[in-house]
Write a structure and sequence with these properties.
- The structure holds two protein chains of two kinds.
- Chain A is mostly beta strands.
- Chain A is built from no helices and eleven strands.
- The radius of gyration of chain A is 13 Å and the shape is globular.
- The chains are: A mainly beta, B mainly beta.
- At the A-B interface, strand 4, strand 5 and strand 10 of A face strand 5 and strand 10 of B.
């Protein structure tokens, strides 16, 4: 199975900060990588697929990059509505696997 | 607009069975693979199973293989998850999602396995 790791596991940031979240796969997954945002008590929301393609309706402050084993989600200017937990997921190989999540909260 | 509505979650005893449903609308259901993804209380996301659009292929997480069965009725735009031999560790909110990369999610249905 492909193991997904994320760093950091949590971070504190201020409104307006640029935030980077890293996701690493235990083997090459090409660009079969998705990112999700989840707020407390809500279903996850898709942000990015194919490592860097923005889901329809998602604001352009979110961007994704990477290929192979190392990936990054960037939020260019953090806003109050962006405080949430972010997950990556590989869909290159079954079983599909998620990262453990990165919680972004207010400094 | 894509809509996914799960139902069927409830309290069930260990060893019991349950069938979850997910009714889809707003897209051509038969054209897309569908998943079940679960989230235990206070925990992260765990992929459970995927079924291809034609239902010709199914895949499972090792944790549910042999106990859960995914299926779909394309004439009813409905996805199912038959859950047998339920264990306490199956307690979770179960989400249905569209496509391998889960571009759309339902609101989830809570399954609690407890005596």
């Amino acid at each position: 199975d492909i193991q997904m790791t994320q760093s950091p596991s949590s971070l504190s940031a201020s409104v307006g900060d640029r935030v980077n979240i890293t996701c690493r796969a235990s083997q090459d997954i090409s660009n079969y990588l998705a990112w999700f945002q989840q707020k407390p008590g809500k279903a996850p929301k898709s942000l990015i697929y194919a490592a860097s393609s923005l889901q329809s309706g998602v604001p352009s402050k979110f961007s994704g990059s990477g290929s192979g084993t190392d990936f990054t989600l960037t939020i260019s200017s953090l806003q109050p509505e962006d405080f949430a937990t972010y997950y990556c997921q590989q869909y290159r190989t079954y079983p599909l696997t998620f990262g453990p999540g990165t919680k972004v909260d207010i400094k | 607009e894509v809509q996914l509505v799960e139902s069927g979650g409830r309290l069930v005893q260990p060893g019991g069975s349950l069938r979850l449903s997910c009714t889809a609308s707003g897209f051509t259901f038969v054209s897309f693979a569908m998943n079940w993804v679960r989230q235990a209380p206070g925990k992260g996301l765990e992929w459970v199973s995927l079924i291809s659009g034609s239902a010709g292929e199914t895949f499972y997480a090792d944790s549910v293989k042999g106990r859960f069965t995914i299926s779909r009725d394309n004439s009813k735009n409905t996805l199912y998850l038959q859950m047998n031999s339920l264990r306490a560790e199956d307690t979770a909110v179960y989400y249905c999602t569209k496509r391998g990369y889960s571009d759309s999610w339902g609101q989830g249905t809570l399954v609690t396995v407890s005596s």
